[in-house]
Amino acid sequence: MESKKTILALVIVFIFVLLFGLGYLDKGKDTAEASAFEAGGSHPAQRESSLTSSETVYDFGTISMKNGDVTKDFTVTNATDKEVLLKTLVTSCMCTRASIVRADGTSKGPFGMPGMGRVPPANERIAAGDSRIIRVVYDPNAHGPAGVGQIDRFAELEDENGGKLQLEIKALVQP
After folding, report:
1. What is the three-state SS of the chain?
2. What tens digit of pLDDT does each residue of 129-144 get?
3. Is 165 found in the same domain as 79?
4. Which domain holds residue 117?
5. Contact (CB, 8 A) for 153 and 91
6. Average pLDDT over residues 150-168
7. Is residue 131 in some structural domain?
């Protein structure tokens, strides 16, 4: 009877260690991908998107925390001869959010950072030759006093074929 309890205890410990180890390894993978994303790197096997933008980087210059949010509108165009499904729109940090603005002024979003609450799929169909505004909003107060200094944030669009387009904003944040 004593040996059965010992074996059962060892099996339970083994299962716990195995589950903990798998969770730890998976977390490391997510962290590495998030770090590459924030550093402006690309995810593994990143493909060029069917969507294009004449401007993919915008520098706000020096901004002040006391003046609040800053906004940049990027025009994204379907340069193909077929409809494209914009599958996802995500941002690189909780301080940044993005929305899809249609020609009629209606919008979808805001979309944020994965892992910081549910980020819904964009599921926005863009006809051949059509455009959408991707409105990127940065909140310089989101990180408090630690948020002072140079920032570099991203909004990433992914189409139905796995193609990605990255939009970048920069600023020097002052109190």
Report:
1. CHHHHHHHHHHHHHHHHHHHHHHHHHHHHHHHHHHHHHCCCCCCCCEECCEECCCCEEEEEEEEHHHCCEEEEEEEEECCCCCEEEEEEEECCCCEEEEEECCCCCEEEEECCCCCCCCCCCCEEECCCCEEEEEEEECCCCCHHHHCEEEEEEEEEEECCCEEEEEEEEEEEEC
2. 999 999 999 999 999 9
3. yes
4. 49-174
5. yes
6. 96
7. yes
